[in-house]
Design brief:
The protein is an alpha/beta fold. It contains five helices and seven strands. Strand 1 and strand 2 form a beta hairpin.
Length: 218
């Protein structure tokens, strides 16, 4: 029995290759698309493929439900990748000149960061547990801890983490407002006394000892 073999022509092979490339390109575009999850002030959740406008009452998340750093405007892809891998947290205090210098360096370079303030005894105790010291400013880049401010040292670590040397932040981006390192919970108000307390027992009427010299009562 004779076997007849058909060899595909070059035109068919080329068409298959083009279709395969188009499918891969389309899959890559779908995978790279960012979906934003918006939570309104009323708690209602909506989804959109458009970057949200800056708002104090809405938060946004990127692919996989991971929150965008500090919400608001979407970060450029390169910066978003670095910030999700090596998030930056700055610990500061009032009337701390080096803290202001560190904040200015991060802002001028366009590094999105979270700021925690250390102004109470509880804050200082928490900082001691985190860093082993109470000196400020204190900076973390991912798992790396940097104590005190040094322009060259901070720049070196930011470069090593992969943060861009010049700002790539959109004009509408705003870092989140600084918050205390330790948030003290207000004590619960004392329970109200029972309104309907048991009425006191009525006292016995005075005994008229004039007609009852022995004071006998029944």
């Amino acid at each position: 029995m004779t076997r007849i073999m058909f060899k595909p022509s070059l035109n068919i092979l080329a068409a298959c290759a083009l279709l395969g490339s188009a499918a891969l390109l389309l899959a890559g575009q779908v995978q790279a698309q960012t979906v934003y999850r918006l939570v309104g002030p009323d708690g209602k959740v909506t989804y959109s493929d458009k970057a949200p406008a800056p708002s104090d009452n809405a938060t946004a998340t990127g692919p996989g439900g991971k929150p965008l750093v500090n919400g608001g405007a979407a970060l450029p892809f390169e910066l978003r990748q670095v910030a999700s891998k090596y998030p930056v947290t700055l610990y500061t205090a009032n009337n701390c000149a080096p803290c202001g210098s560190g904040r200015a360096l991060l802002s001028s370079r366009g590094v999105p960061f979270t700021e925690k303030t250390v102004n109470t005894a509880e804050d200082a105790e928490a900082l001691q547990r985190i860093s082993g010291e109470s000196s400020l400013p204190f900076l973390t880049i991912g798992g790396q801890q940097i104590k005190g401010f040094s322009d060259s040292e901070w720049t070196q670590f930011l470069d090593a983490a992969g943060y861009p040397k010049t700002s790539l932040l959109p004009a509408s981006f705003r870092n989140a407002v600084a918050t205390p390192l330790v948030v003290l919970q207000k004590p619960a108000p004392p329970a109200k006394a029972e309104e309907n307390q048991r009425a006191p027992m009525p006292s016995s009427p005075p005994v008229d000892t004039r007609s009852n010299p022995a004071g006998i009562t029944f």
